[in-house]
Amino acid sequence: MDYSEKWGRDVDEAVKLALEDLKVSIDEVDVTVLEEPSRGFFGIGSKLALVRVEKKKKEEPEPEQPAPVYEAPVAEPVKETVKEEARPKQNKEKKNRQKATKENKTKKPELSVLREEPEEELTVLEDHKAITFLREVIKEMGLDCEVSGKMGKETIYLNIQGKDSGTIIGKRGQTLDSIQYLVSLVVNKDQNKYTRVVVDAENYRAKRERTLEALAYRLATKVSKSRRPVKLEPMNPYERKVIHATLQNHPHVTTRSEGEDPYRRVIIELK
After folding, report:
1. Average pLDDT over residues 213-232
2. What pTM was estimated for this model as a whole?
3. What homologous superfamily is domain 203-271 in, according to CATH?
4. What's the DSSP call for residue 171?
């Protein structure tokens, strides 16, 4: 075994567990911190530390392998002597692949937390317990932010704006997710019908979605070239959904999830 990934209450504990697993000393390995520990917000969303400890070794360059491509069936075999005729065909196929990749990247995921309902079908929330509770939480945190909201058929959309919105978002949106969870509990308490709650701050959700899309395409290209699967870091259900939706029509790779929440992660692999 050349590497080990371990969880721990802090980075030191995770590294210690990995070293014991590999039976090596700290001088013989490279340590990569994959996830920093977090206490969460009100005890919600706390996370353990995750490290990858890998034995040091000399890097040996691997021969690059071309990504798998779709080729149309050839009616007649092409003679090796006709090199000049084959070259234009190869260039054309290359351009077609580049065009297909570009078109695929322009597609938006069908599942978007911000656009499941058209804007014109939403109504403005003037007085609602979701807004009241969220304002109280922000006040108790000592932050300067404004809250507005809109209501769809089955979803409440709350938006936070202000100079302290960065604090509301937290690292990778962890604080925002925790606040969203609390507001959802308040809204759905003693209710027969479940109402979905989406809490956003300074369009963070949309920006995060674009970041995840770019990550998905980049890793899909890596998998296509290396022909090896890639495991992403643990993500919440929404972020995993963005990855799946982004690559659902990719010609070369497919996605799946493994593990249990909160450590469930997406795996990208060849079809």
Report:
1. 94
2. 0.55
3. R3H-like domain (3.30.1370.50)
4. G
